[in-house]
Amino acid sequence: MSDAAITAHDLRKSYGGTTVLDGIDLTVPRGTIFSLLGPNGAGKTTAVKILSTLIPPDPGSGTLRVGGHDLATDPQAVRAAIGVTGQFSAVDGLITGEENMLLMADLHHLPRREGRRVAAELLERFDLTEAAGKPASTYSGGMKRRLDIAMTLVGDPRIIFLDEPTTGLDPRSRHSMWQIIRALVADGVTVLLTTQYLEEADELADRIAVLNDGKIAAEGTAEELKRLVPGGHVRLRFTDPAAYRGARAALGGVHPDDEALALQIPSGGSQRELHTLLGRLDSLGIEADELTVHTPDLDDVFFALTGDAVIPSPTEENAR
Ligand SMILES: Nc1ncnc2c1ncn2[C@@H]1O[C@H](COP(=O)(O)OP(=O)(O)OP(=O)(O)O)[C@@H](O)[C@H]1O
């Protein structure tokens, strides 16, 4: 059997005349975390839905294999090997956490006593024992996500698809979810994770594929991707909107953030480059309120690969 848990060749999907996945290739080695990273609408969920047999690929697609099984000829075997959680949560809010777990145990045909044991063990592992008797609709976002993953694990899948597992979670819940994901992989589970957060892919993934416009714009480890971009950037922040607009107009090739009144300028951060930049601003009589120098990170890779696409960083989003 191949070492890959998931392989996709020339995966294609269009809706009407719109191409969502334009022939993507993926190989996910067993026991690793692979991240599909991309902005809203890049096609991440579509890829997960296809690979987890929820929707069919376009007929022109190449071979797709998950857990050693061909999706086209053996979708049942694929379904038995995988777990899927994420944006399409399986949690039923009207019943309790424990009842949700027992329902999953029933679906997996576990004998009653075994079902109760597995449910109790997983509820404990995901810190849900205390809340187990309450309706899931009363759970916080983080608790619902934990319950969702716990439900997925009832069937002991060896491959798990996590579709944006931390979108909307606060930093503490996000870190707790990251620990859960790391623990899964330490147990030998393969995880295909979609995220729009660079930091999350950087933290968790062994390999990352950047999805843009239905194509894989680049693939590699976080370090390999960071080496793709020549340098880092300088970020200038303003409090005066007029100064911000002046600098934006005067400096070419910047990534503006109109809401934060910030400009991101590609730069190696050398003394000479900073001197030139500040000289430029001085000559225009513009003063920035904050200047920070960033060495290359996944943000730079993303900007370089996807033009002006801006994707949020979880820390920025939640710190406010
Ligand atoms: N059933 C459908 N019919 C028509 N278009 C669809 C359908 N499902 C998805 N799309 C379109 O396909 C594109 C990709 O959607 P998808 O949900 O895969 O993106 P995504 O990368 O997961 O985005 P997000 O981060 O917002 O979840 C979007 O433009 C979306 O509108």
TrEMBL record:
Pfam families: ABC_tran. PROSITE patterns: ABC_TRANSPORTER_1, ABC_TRANSPORTER_2. It comes from Streptomyces nigra. Transmembrane segments: none annotated. PANTHER family: ABC TRANSPORTER ATP-BINDING PROTEIN, DOXORUBICIN RESISTANCE ATP-BINDING PROTEIN DRRA. One of its GO terms (molecular function) is ATP binding. It comes from the Bacteria. Keywords: Antibiotic resistance, ATP-binding, Nucleotide-binding, Transport. It is found in: Cell membrane. Residues 6-238 form the ABC transporter domain. It is a peripheral membrane protein. Coiled coil: none annotated. This is ATP-binding cassette domain-containing protein.
